[in-house]
Amino acid sequence: MIQLHQHSSMHTFPGGVTYNFETMIWHAIEGNTHMFVKEIFQSNNEDYKMGNSYAGQLKTTRFEEVLHNSIEASLRSNNLVPRPVFSQLYLEAEHQLISNLEDGLVPNTACKRPGNEEEEEDDGSETSSPLIPYQMKPPPEGCCTTDGFCQAGKDLRLVSMSNEQIEVPSGFLLIGAKSPNLPEHLLVCAVDKRFLPDDNGRNALLGFSGNCVGCGEKGFRYFTEFSNHINLKLITQPKKQKHLKCYLIKNAQGSLTKGPLICWKGTEGRTQQSSSSSTSSIPSQPPESPASSTTVASAESISGTNHNALTGFQQAGAPTDHTLSRAATGVSAAHNNRDSSRHQNPMKPNNVSCQNMSRPSVIGNLANSGPPKKRHRGWSPDASSATETSSIQSNPLAPNSGSKAVADTVELACMTQSSLLGPIPSPLTTSEEPVVVPDNLLKICRTRPVIFKGHGNLPYLCGNLNDIVVSPLLQNCYRNTQSFPRVYEQHGTSVTTVLSIEMQVLLTVYYLAQLAPDQVPLIEDLELILVRAWQESNLTETKQYQQAVSQSVPYASSPTLTVTATQLTWLAKLAASSCKNVVRILDSSSTLVEGLTETFKLLSEGKLQGKNFVVIICTTKNQSTESCVVVTGKRQAGFLAERMLSPKEHLKEINYELVTGKVGALGAFFSSLCPEGDIDALLEKCGLAKNGQGSSVTASLNKCDDTTLQRPTICSVSNKESCQIHPVQLAVARKLLSHVCAIADSSTQNLDLGSFEKVDFLILIPPSEVAYQQTVLRVRQSGILVELGLEAESTANQYAEQYVMKLTTEAQSKFEAFQQRALKNPYTLFILIHDHAHWDLTSGGAFPHSEPFLGLADRIVNCKEMKEALNVLTLQVTSFPFALQTQQTYISPYNEIHWPSPCNNGMNLYHENNKYFGLSDFIDSTYSGHKLPLLRYDSSFEAMVTAVEERFPKMHSAVIWTYILIQHYSAAMMVTAGHLQMKNYSSVETLEIIQSLTNSTGSCPSSHGYMVLLRIPSISLAALAYERLCQVRYRLGLQHRFEIILGMPNTKINISQHFLTQLKVWQKIEDPNWTPLTYMDLEDLPCILILSGTDPYGESFPRSAKYYDLRLINSTCLLRTALEQELGLAACYVVLDVPRQTVIVNDLSESDLDKPGSTDDDEVSVSIEVTAVADLGKKSNNKRQRSYSNHSASSRSSKTSSLLCDSDPFSTSGAEDSARHPPNVESVNIEDGSIAREKPKLRADNMQQKPMNETQYSEKHRINLDQIDNRRSSRRSTKTFSSNSSSAQTPILGQVTSQCPRTKAASQPPTVFLPKLIYEIVTKVDSAGVGKLSSFLPHHTVQWITSFHPSLAKMMTSTEQSLYYRQWTVTKRNHMDFNKTQNRTEMFHPRRLLLNGPPQVGKTGAYLQFLSILSRMLIRLMEVDVYDEEEINLKTKEDSALQQKESLLWPDLESFSTLLFDYTVHDPKYEDASPVYSRDLAKNKGYKANKKEDDIYLRRHTTRMRLSKYAACNTYHHCEQCHEYMGFSPRCQPYDSTLHAFTFSCSILGEEVQLHFIIPKSKEHNFIFSQPAGQLESMRLPLVTDKNPDCIKSPVFTPTTGRHEHGLFNLYHAMDGASHLHVLVIKEYEMAVYKKYWPNHIMLVLPSIFNNSGVGAAHFLIKELSYHNLELERNRQEELGSKPQDVWPFIVIADDSCVMWNSLNTEVSQNSTSVPAEQNVLERNVSLKHVLQHIEATAQIPHYALCGVRKWSSKVHSPYLTEPFSRCHLHDFLLLNVDLTQNVQYNQNRFTCDDVDFNIRVHSAGLLICRFNRFSVMKKQIAIGGHRTFLIKSKVPDVPMSISPSQYICAPDSKHTFLAAPAQLLLEKYLQHTSNHLFPLSVRNYNHPVLSVDCYLNLGQEITVCFVSSRPHSLNINTSGLAFSGLLLYLCDSFVTSSILRRFHFLKGATLCVICQDRSSLRQTVVRLELEDEWQFRLRDEFQTANSQEDKPLFFLTGRHV
Fold first, then answer.
1. How far, in Å, CA of 1519 to CA of 1526, rounded?
2. Tens-place pLDDT, residues 625-645
3. What is the mean pLDDT of residues 65-94?
4. What is the DSSP string of 1363-1387?
């Protein structure tokens, strides 16, 4: 801003030219020279130096010559809208500089590239950069988040702690911290004084050290961490300099009080500067700064929308670019004193994200400076507003700064508006006389002037107050600007000033002067300009001040530049002089009374004709400047007056005018517009003629109908579209399910999916009958009720209405029933779906009596019972989520699901044949310069509206607009009926609509037609329009041509019987009582649907809807949600798979050759590329030209207007629009058009191809296209048509194509007509591509937190928009979420989700599909995949040695001992293992029939089984019963547990073994501890004689690894609540994670040496520990008097995948006559308790070594039905007698087959193994953990290599690559996969097995192993006469001798394999066993496992028998 000093009127310009500046200005004004400086700046680009020169300095010697030439050119020019002189003086300089930048003339000191910003570190000093909102780390769960309290819940407020005794550590001081949310409180904290400054503001250490005085937590080393702890909730980066304000001291009474301020560095300087700045309103130009100063943020970077939803005068297209604020602040841009030329003006820094160029500011001097010190990466990019001469697209970064709803800021920013249209007398605050409002003011002015309060007190008004409107909106806008400094101080900058009153008035005048004569002002635009001006005047000074502070130099503020009161009037008049006299400036020297009186006088005298605004400025010497604005323009005043009304008040006003009969004059006026007199009389004649011979046109129409009926029926359209789920809907449903699972998986445990068995739901919709029936129909079609099991298939359609609820008080019983079901069924998950959620956001207590249905959604969704119910999930569905995304929202940003984009980088992600055509696509269609846009406005209609509004100023605009549109539709129908004299009384657009409607049925054999949707929000006006149009249609005889339907929210669809019959025929409905329930049922019906209601309610419309006439929507309610939901009505899907993808917008059959005011090809020639239109928005680099065909093409708008009024000529805006933008009509050869129509084969909605007869039909009716072309050419040249030619040619042209309207509608989007105001708002974008629509307030129940907020960016995703609104909007008191403000500690609701998708995109189908897959997932959670495999190697029944009694429940010891042991392994998991040799195996040739080739390589077979109530569960299962068992609950803390060591000696290991038990406190009663040391002594064991039905005697041990989440360790339900002892056996390195997931389980931690061991080590230690514990318990029980043998000796070893247990019973059929009798197998699920207690009850059970059950299989074989018990192998689940098996140990080295090895050795020891065949165990398939945790890989890091089993061994001392795997595992895997080469004679040789001594090793499925024990008295198989093909000696001990080996015979060439721990023991074994006598060895036959020496490899030697 450059001050214009009166003292310096002479100025010396470059080149030595001296000129009197004031003289120059006034000469320019007197000569109307508004462009006189333009040539000066454009004459020589080189004269502009970016360094130290003024932006406005004129460096040319031709100044006078250029000046006079410019004045002369200006005088001759009268078609340019001039701008004020000073804006031109400096804006042209700016444009010149921009052009320099575009030409590559970048200044030397250009900004750094963004990539260099990382190099600059934050030094802690404040910057003037716009501040990013600080994203605080979320607080820990469960902590306190209340303001003024720390996270531990302790009060820190000074008022609470003033009398508390606080212990302050040495070296610490008590400091008062300031919280932005508690401005009136100080928070007490203790800070290390080393980090605080001294009295001079110096010597403070960097960093922070502090303690919390509330909870006593110490050692906070970072202020960020400390600020989080004390809940400062900062929105900026935490800095101690900002928030540690003062010292705290004790007063005389000993209370803690506020002490002196902390002297932070630069505080005093800021205070002085702030005080000095308060005396002047505009900052001076500070010294040169190294920071970037070439850019000022654009006007769009700060959205200046007012906080009140219903405030402000808004107008699309109002000039809100930066030129306004700059030029206005630069109005006084005369040259200053000479000293100022040395200074430069550092502007607000700007970093351009896409290009390294900046726009220069011209308010001061051009700056030569560098980039800002640091740019916050979180700034949202935004672009500068487009200027008239520059197309540069830079992206200034909007300052994301704001405050968290500070009380004073919000109070100022959210002033309540006055919505009164009547008198609002101002308070009489002075003794001045009142201002009298003259009589008949309304009659004289033809409008009620609107008086905007400005500065000062408005005088008292009296007199005719009904003819004026007083509004406080402008005053509120000014007050909002006063809050900017306070908002900015929230971000740490105190060097700020406010805009002076003079500057605010000057900016207002400049803004008003920029408006076009027919434009209405927007308060948002003005506020935006004020924000921009304030930024420019403050941020530069702030930047310079901070640099001065950082350099420790004294800061001297430059003289503040301001506009004085004297200059204000002069400059205001200067600005107003260039605006076509639209603005009048009245200056008053005393008070506003004088100015208002003068204004009323001028109005009464009619001297303000053509003046739209009168600005009254009162300047006195001793008082501040006062001002007000009087709006006198008819359009402007009417718009602003109505804009002050709420939507409810709008409807009241309309109803009042209709009821009182005020519209009678309006109706009479329109009735008289007929050229033949009364229009009703003409219609009456039409009615009489209809009964007679009829008109020729009507006859021709009927004739056309007859010919149409005679055509063959070739229309192939489908019936109602079936309920089909599209891929994108399925994707959204899965996203919803994913979010639900995320809630369930979170540690908060707010949703326990594992406890739910089914899904129930209720859908809430707005009170619309059609929307209700539409939703009910979709519920029925989806079949969801049957799928969820809620209703039977026969009754589902009948009860579907019970699951959909209209938000009316009558339907509330449905919710009460839903609520009762939710409370009574805790195991059912209830989904409350709030569809169209943006409709009713009113608080439940806002309108309790007048409108009871308002607030009902709040009373349901936020019902306490619903919010607290753990089985209720709320899903809010909306297309416009903005009002649900506020600072008080209940919905977490992580619980938002946004509809995905169907395309990514041009690729169709979901392979859809349809493309969604939404608002952005409609807008893109307006940018095509050669195609008719789909979004249009009607300029002829607008011109007539303006004329009639001036004639009826008292009438509400909605009434006038409706009457005019009725007139247009009536006239268009009359033209269609043959009354061509009425064509001038309708617009081209309306004629197009009606003609397309009436002609559409002629192109379809079935008379299918188009729908026209006419939107009239007022129900009363809609009823009026319906009645009038029906009357006109009837009198014209068109009642059978098309239907007129009145669509009201609470009524059903009503159509005539004629069209009802047609619909039944088309849709093949035979029900005589059927009526259409939804608008989709009206598919193909030619009709006008009048849709009424304040808001649309989400109704869907058929694809036959071709036109959406939205010309009557409320143009005064400019809210983003309100506008977008109106525009969303036309959203639809279009078919993509059309050849060439050409969509005909208006084809030949619908065009009327005699359409008035248009050419004959203005419709035919227009086609639209669907994909091209969609892609237009992506071409951001190309400057797009808007189509000129977006308005009426009629050239008779002026003529139409002149017919309306004889006295006063109407506005010719429509004609001017047509003249400026001529209709872009393209002449296209009809032949080309015809070919284009014949070539594509469009598909109908049923996606079926046309039948063959349709193609034949089109060939048959082909006509001579050349003749038609010639006729059209002749008509095109004359442009005059007759009705005869129309009637003659239309039927012929209709035969060119006979496509059904539905076929064409499926592939073309509809056309939308809007009011011009809405059209300009919707289509206006700035240079960054940001639409103006997005800058409006989102909803009337929310408000901006401050005007100082950034604007949305073009490329913002839905998620980023959500975060934007969450930061910058707050709720009003009537919003349903406002109550959350009262309790700020309330977090987001954990079970509430938001689904956001565009209108009509398919959200209902998506959430119904979500219910389906959610139900399937819950069922799936209750199901598991269990192994279902048939047992292998079964022998036939007759081979059984002994038949047992089938009725036995327990085995008889004596008879069971006589059974033979079955060596054969039957478990199918060992199908690929070596068979164990037995005589049966040799006899059956290895049971080869049971094995299939390659089966072992296939996935094991599983079956999905539903979990029973006795199932074992994993950690994901949570239910109320087992919460205590699991050890964690939302209501209790994790259980405490202790670690106990347990040491015992092990002879096999040769050392003492120390194990560790983790024992929870709740399980300590199962153990014995020494007293008083508390050392673990033993684990309690019961006695054999104990009888307790609720107790399991055997301790359960479960070894596990890698399955802390998926292991089935929850045995609460499996044990049926019985007390038991369960121990998890885990490895040491997994101790922490298992303890975390299973805090209430006992855990046995193996020693660290077993971390790499297999399951054999776990089994070995379990057994060793159990035997040692048995001995200890026997000793303890013996001391208590019990016998040692009475102590229970059994333990249970269970796999971690055992899930369920079954009991098998057999029954003999009563009716069976076969021999033997037929058996019925009955299998039922039983508890583990039942199985164990049954086995434990076995008689003489201590005599059994092992007891177990069989593996479950769906196929039960007969041998085990007749044999209840077997002596065979046991796996996975067994009872082990640790007493009997004392001398038989598990092999601690084994990884695989250790159970087979152990079973054989137990049997060889002569012990009994009993399997209970009537019980079976199901094993769950768990894909992770277990043996899969062992991976064999190379020890060489980062070397990807595939390792084959042959590489598991190597020659000793070789350079083989060593492997990172245990040696035992390598050996077992090697033998399993490569034994075929090791034992070649043994392959498939079942009669000559490999002899294995004392162990069983898996040598592969083709090699049989014969086990022999070397122990004395052992039971071995009879090997007499058996020759072995190999010998395997594995770690043989001293029991193996050479004499034992000599008993066996070997084949010649048999293979020997000796395995030992090391090479020396290998040689010793060969010598000791005298193996060299019979076996031949070679040196190369010695091998080792591929382990390094530290991994202790195993060695083995092979040899051959000689």
1. 10
2. 899 999 999 889 989 998 888
3. 44
4. HHHHHHEEE-TTBTTTHHHH-TT--
The sign one gets for the Cα dihedral 193, 199, 204, 210 is positive
Cβ(1737)–Cβ(1725) under 8 Å?
Answer: no
**Per-residue H/E/C for 812-847:** HHHHHHHHHHHHHCCCEEEEEEECCCCCCCECCCCC
Q: Quote the tokens at residue 1632.
A: 């922490």
Cα 1177–Cα 1182–Cα 1186 angle in degrees, nearest 5: 65
Work out the pLDDT band at 1516, boundaries 50, 70, 90.
confident
Query: Helix, strand or coil for residue 90?
Result: helix
Question: Measured between alpha carbons, how far is 1860 from 1877 in angstroms, rounded to an integer?
Answer: 25
The three-state DSSP-derived secondary structure of 1210-1270 is CCCHHHHHHHHCCCCCCCCCHHHHHHHHHCCCCCCCCCCCCCHHHHHHHHHCCCCHHHHHH
Alpha-carbon distance of 899 to 439, in angstroms, equals: 59
| The amino acid at 1117 | C
* pLDDT, tens digit (0-9, with 9 covering 90-100), for 1667-1711: 999 999 999 999 999 999 999 999 999 999 999 999 987 665 555
Taking the mean position of all CA atoms in its chain, how far away is CA 1922? 75
Beta bridge partners of 211: 190
Whether residue 94 has pLDDT greater than 90: no
Q: What's the chain's average pLDDT?
A: 76
DSSP state of 949: H
The per-residue b/e assignment along 153-192, b for 16 or more CB within 10 angstroms, e otherwise, is ebbbbbeebbeeeeeeeeebbbbbbebbbbeebbbbbbbb
**Residue reference for tokens 């006589």:** 1458
* Cβ–Cβ under 8 Å, residues 1343 and 1337: yes
Among residues 1369, 1141, 1161, the alpha carbon closest in space to that of 1272 is found at: 1161
Give the largest CA-CA distance in the chain: 140
CB atoms within 10 A of CB 1258: 18
Q: Answer yes or no: is pLDDT of 291 > 70.
A: no
Q: How far apart are CA 127 and CA 544, in angstroms?
A: 10
For residue 1169, name the pLDDT band (cuts at 50, 70, 90).
very low
Q: Torsion angle, CA of 1602/1603/1605/1609, rounded to 10 degrees?
A: -140
Cis bond upstream, residue 1845 (ω within 30): no
What is the per-residue pLDDT for 351?
38
How long a stretch of residues is the chain? 2002
In sign, the C-alpha dihedral spanning 1194, 1195, 1200, 1201 is positive
Q: Is 873 helix (H, G, I), strand (E, B) or coil?
A: strand
Tokens at residue 1412, please?
């389906």
For 316, the token pair is 């699309």
Q: Report the C-alpha gap between 973 and 998 in whole angstroms.
A: 9
Q: What is the SS3 string spanning 1391-1457?
A: CEEEEECCCCCCHHHHHHHHHHHHHHHHHHHCEEEEECCCCCCCCCHHHCCCCCCCCCCCCCHHHHH
Q: Do the Cβ atoms of 1456 and 1808 come closer than 8 Å?
A: yes
**Dist CA 1453 CA 1280 (whole Å):** 117
pLDDT band at 316 (very low <50, low <70, confident <90, very high): very low
Q: If you average pLDDT over residues 1963-1970, what whole number do you get?
A: 95
Indicate the pairing of strand 613-618 with strand 626-631: antiparallel
Give the containing element (helix H, strand E) for 1806: none
Residue 52: HSE in the Cβ half-sphere, 13 Å Cα cutoff: 7
User: What are the C-alpha distances in Å from 1344 to residues 109, 457, 1279?
Assistant: 38, 27, 55
**Which band of pLDDT confidence, cut at 50, 70 and 90, is reported for residue 689?**
low
DSSP code, position 149: B
CA distance 1472 to 891: 55
CA distance 1591 to 1594: 9
CA distances from 752 to 414, 627, 865, 869, 1606 (A): 43, 64, 18, 12, 16
